[in-house]
């Protein structure tokens, strides 16, 4: 019998949204069910990897056999990711909020006579870019996601260069596709070598396909 393809490999996955507090009861977030990221963690575990899943707030259950670290904000997410390096490959499927409120209120903001409060936003750390450019602990394979509503592949190619990652899994999330929150996905794998258009499949099939590609890539470089 052959050994499982990812036996002996450590894989890190981020999944879900992040929540950035405005006050104790309100937050800013991106839309993300966590279905695709969690499916990738589950598929990597099934392929024999030791998997760490850093998950934002999601409804989907923790995949079995996977170490799950639950976080809320982007800053908590990057801290959890850094604490769990080194890994052989990292897949950044989380929909991280690009901005957070500079000074989240400690008490619930009350509706008042002055009208709506103005939020002062500051940029969150880019987790994918900072791990892809990490001087000492960059994983051998760094995979990012690109959720786009137009010019999907062009944006993904640009993102590959800008973020310094190896692969981008690009998907069209315009509302008409039903991908957002749904169980199916249509993705394009964008690498330095070119673009592969994968057939529409369930998120778990897309996950298995991606994990098989990751295993082949890690095996190709041996080590
Ligand atoms: O630039 P954009 O947010 O579209 O890039 C998406 C990719 O970057 C995803 O892989 C996402 O997980 C990652 N990302 C991140 N940290 C951020 C923003 C995006 O890791 N602050």
Comma- or semicolon-separated keywords:
single chain, 223 residues, 14 strands, binds cytidine-5'-monophosphate
Write the layout of secondary structure elements.
Elements: E1 10-15, E2 19-23, E3 26-29, H1 35-46, E4 50-55, E5 67-70, H2 74-83, E6 89-92, E7 99-101, E8 121-123, H3 127-132, E9 141-148, H4 152-163, E10 167-172, E11 184-185, E12 187-191, E13 194-197, E14 201-202, H5 203-220
Parallel strand pairs: 1-4, 1-6, 4-5, 6-9, 9-10
Antiparallel strand pairs: 2-3, 7-8, 10-12, 11-14, 12-13
Helix pairs in contact: 1-5
Bound molecules: cytidine-5'-monophosphate.
What would you call the structural class? alpha/beta
Strand order of the largest sheet: 5-4-1-6-9-10-12-13
The helix/strand order is EEEHEEHEEEHEHEEEEEH
How many extended strands? 14
**Overall mean confidence score, pLDDT:** 94
Largest sheet: 8 strands, mixed
Separate helix tally: 5
* Computed Rg: 18 Å
Q: Please state the overall shape, judged from the principal axes of the Cα atoms.
A: globular
The hetero compounds bound to this protein are: cytidine-5'-monophosphate
What distance lies between the first and last C-alpha atoms, to the nearest angstrom?
22 Å
Helix content: 25-40%
**Low-confidence stretches at least 5 residues in length (pLDDT < 50)?**
none
Strand content: 25-35%
Q: What's the quick description here?
A:
The protein is of the alpha/beta class and about 220 residues long. The chain is about 25% helix and about 30% strand.
